[in-house]
Each structure stands twice: as C-alpha cells, then as structure tokens.
TrEMBL record, chains A, B:
Residues 19-78, 82-138 form the CBS domain. It comes from Methanoculleus receptaculi. GO terms for biological process: methionine biosynthetic process. This is Homocysteine biosynthesis protein. The chain holds residues 365 to 502 of 502 of the full protein. Keywords: Amino-acid biosynthesis, CBS domain, Methionine biosynthesis.
Length: 138, 138
C-alpha cells in the first residue's frame, strides 16, 4: 500500500478579510472636477460609479481624470472618462484570484460587489501587502 | 537532550525580484499636460521626476495631476504639483519592508534607486501579488 503524500493545506484568504468597506462613490452625470475633488479628499485613486439605485456601472480613477487634462475641455462629465467594463471581485473570492485580476489587467483596485451588483467594498493592491509571508493582518 | 525545534527558514524576496525595470520619468520644468500624456501613454500612475543627471528629485502621479484639474490653472509645471519627499526603496530591500512603506503611507508605488540615487526601477503594489502564497513568479 502506497503511503499518502503529506497534504499541505493552504487556507486561501478571501477578499472580505482584507477589503476596505469604506467606499466613496460617484454618479456618471457628475462634473469631472467633482470626481477629482472626491479623489483628492478621499485620498483614493478609485471611485466606483453607481447608478441611482447604487448599482455599479463604471469606475473612474485619477488616471481617467488625467485624460481631462489633455482633452482641452472636451471631457466634462464622469461618463466621458469612466471605464464601463469594470473588473470586479466578490467578498468570497480567494485573494489570489483577485490578485491575478489586478496583475493581468494592470489595475490597482477592484470594486467588491455582492450578488446584486451592489458595491460593498474596494480591494486595493496595497491591501495585498497584508498577506505577505511573515506578516500579520487585521 | 532536547530535540531542536524544526527551523522554518523564510527566504524573504528582495525588491529586485519583482520590480519593473522599465521606468518612464520626467523633469520638473515640464508642463503638467506633458506629464499627463506620459502617464496615459505608459498606462502608469507614477512618474519619477529626475534632474538633468538622472537623479531622483520628486514623484508626480495621476493623483497630483488631479490637483491641477481643481486648481483652475494655478498649477502649470510638474514642480508645482510633484511630491519632493519621495518614499523610495532599493533593489536589495526585503519586499515586506517595501510593502510596509506602501501601506503606511497609503501609496501604490515606490521608485527603486541605487546607491547613487539613480532610478533603476519602480515597485508597484500590483507586483506584490506575485508573492502571494501558492503563486509562482517569473
Ligand atoms: C490601465 S490602468 C493603468 C494605471 C495603473 N496601472 C492603475 O493601476 O491604475 C488605468 C485604467 O484602468 C481603469 N481601471 C481601474 N480599475 C479598474 C477596474 N477594476 N476595472 C476596469 N477598469 C479599471 C481606469 O478606469 C483607468 O482607465
């Protein structure tokens, strides 16, 4: 009878354990300057864009606001610069899957949505540092 | 005779192993719109600012460019919006120390400088994902 190989159980942390629950969001008809102010005030690079019922419809970052600087006034509202195809995660997703989404898309944060597409948090690449070997988190 | 406890050697990865060596930089007298263009073209949020000899004197990010959007034309050059006190790392620094710098200062990238303060790379928080348990890198 062959001996069983030693089983190394790696408990993968979930997004909910390291995500930030305080999310500042914006709507798509707001002025770009309002978005810029929120980004500067919240000291964040990412504003989820939500519709009237709070559902995720886009994301706008300081990167997108930079487009307004080179557009010479053509872009005025959040909807002119936001990204509509939002790469997102859920509270239950394993963190390594979320990390892959960040890397593969060269983005630094993922809105965290519940089953109804409501924004419940944001996972930023900086939060991944909490999981480095030898570090404690929370 | 007591048995020795099993010794778990954790080899801490160094910044050089996960940093990005392709760095786009700018000088402080450039127009903010040039910085915005470089950021958008490089698909990055961070431009190290270097002097005429290529030494690090500041950093300008899409976050800083957003300040120009709300300043109504008061800010025009990179030096008006850049951060002078740059939090940086070196190729030999252990990654967990660099990760701490990111978290504690709520920033998403660190310029990597050699002993002569020359920029040799950039370490972004996104790169930390390469080191998550169970993942392979390079
Ligand atoms: C390509 S990234 C490059 C800048 C930098 N690497 C970063 O992490 O933000 C910038 C673009 O990604 C978009 N973006 C950021 N997070 C996103 C997400 N979770 N899903 C889709 N697009 C996103 C922004 O709207 C912006 O247009």
């Amino acid at each position: 009878k062959r001996s069983k190989p030693m089983r190394e159980t790696v408990v993968t942390p979930r997004v909910r354990e390291i995500m930030d629950r305080r999310v500042i969001s914006i709507t798509e008809d707001e002025d770009i300057r309002v978005a810029a102010k929120k980004l500067l005030k919240g000291e964040t690079n990412h504003l989820p864009v939500v519709d009237a019922s709070g559902l995720l419809v886009g994301i706008v970052t300081t990167y997108d606001v930079s487009k307004a600087v080179v557009s010479d006034g053509r872009f005025r509202r959040v909807k002119d610069i936001m990204t509509r195809n939002v790469i997102r995660t859920t509270p239950d997703e394993p963190v390594d899957i979320a990390a892959q989404k960040l890397e593969q898309n060269n983005i630094s944060a993922l809105p965290v949505v519940d089953a109804g597409n409501r924004v419940v948090g944001i996972l930023s690449a900086i939060d991944l540092g909490k999981l480095l070997p030898g570090r404690r988190w929370r």
